[in-house]
């Protein structure tokens, strides 16, 4: 009996919530499909594609929470107090770890517009520490490069976007395997 009274009292909100959630699930499905299509078209590593899809899912989840709060009658003034408090805490935390946020943002930018892919040999023109190596992996925070001597170098994504980079050889990882070396 109580459930029926609860349902009748919030029937409009529950229906709107259903439509909002269906719409956001559809947006998530379409967005993830587009990201996967772009990733496969540009020969991007499957792990990077999944990471970007996860970012989209989290963003849509947070948007769903905001919309649901409005649907169920939370006043905008109350939401503004809550969000300003949350953003103040997040802002202080992100200021303390700005380089991590910078690397994640760079990783997202590199997903869509990075001209090099896993297996390419590149040279990073860094005044203090120039690097030449084969890209083994591109992750959310860093790039893994294998130098000619076999050393593995992790290079932050934000520096990849700040430094000049030259393509030395396309698909160099194939040539390394052809020579019989197991350095990679």
Domain count, please report it. 2
Low-confidence stretches: none
Largest sheet: 5 strands, antiparallel
- How many E strands? 5
Backbone CA Rg: 23 Å
| Largest sheet strand order | 4-3-2-1-5
First-to-last CA distance: 67 Å
Mean pLDDT: 82
Number of helices: 7
Helical content stands at 55-70%
Q: Outline, from the CA principal axes? A: elongated
Structural class: alpha+beta
Could you spell the SSE succession in H and E letters?
Answer: HHHHHEEEEHEH
Beta-strand percentage?
Answer: 15-25%
Chain-wise SSE layout:
Blueprint: H1 2-9, H2 11-41, H3 46-71, H4 76-96, H5 98-113, E1 121-125, E2 131-138, E3 142-147, E4 152-156, H6 157-162, E5 164-169, H7 172-178
Helix pairs in contact: 2-3, 4-5
Structure, described:
With 184 residues, the chain is α+β, with helices and mostly antiparallel strands. The protein folds into 2 domains: 2-96; 115-178, SH3 type barrels, CATH 2.30.30. 62% of the residues lie in helices and 16% in strands. The protein has helices at 2-9, 11-41, 46-71, 76-96, 98-113, 157-162, 172-178; strands at residues 121-125, 131-138, 142-147, 152-156, 164-169. The chain has a 5-stranded antiparallel sheet. It is elongated. The N and C termini lie far apart (67 Å).
Name the descriptors.
7 helices, elongated, 5-stranded antiparallel beta sheet, mechanosensitive monoatomic ion channel activity, 2 domains, 184 residues, alpha+beta, 62% helix, SH3 type barrels
Q: What would you say about this model in short?
A:
With 184 residues, the chain is α+β, with helices and mostly antiparallel strands. Helix content is 62%, strand content 16%. The protein has helices spanning 2-9, 11-41, 46-71, 76-96, 98-113, 157-162, 172-178; strands at residues 121-125, 131-138, 142-147, 152-156, 164-169.
């Amino acid at each position: 009996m109580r459930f029926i009274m609860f349902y009748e009292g919030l029937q409009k909100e529950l229906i709107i919530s259903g439509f909002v959630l269906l719409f956001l699930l559809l947006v998530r499905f379409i967005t993830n499909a587009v990201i996967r299509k772009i990733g496969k078209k540009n020969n991007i590593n499957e792990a990077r594609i999944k990471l970007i899809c996860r970012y989209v899912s989290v963003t849509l989840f947070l948007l769903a929470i905001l919309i649901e709060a409005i649907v169920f009658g939370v006043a905008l003034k109350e939401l503004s107090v809550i969000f300003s408090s949350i953003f103040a805490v997040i802002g202080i935390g992100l200021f303390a770890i700005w380089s991590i946020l910078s690397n994640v943002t760079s990783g997202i930018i590199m997903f869509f517009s990075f001209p090099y892919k896993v297996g390419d040999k590149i040279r990073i023109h860094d005044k203090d520490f120039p690097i030449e190596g084969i890209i083994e992996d591109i992750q959310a925070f860093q790039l893994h490069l294998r130098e000619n001597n076999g050393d593995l170098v992790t290079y932050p994504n934000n520096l990849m976007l700040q430094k000049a980079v030259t393509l030395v050889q396309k698909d160099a990882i194939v040539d390394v395997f052809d020579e019989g070396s197991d350095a990679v």
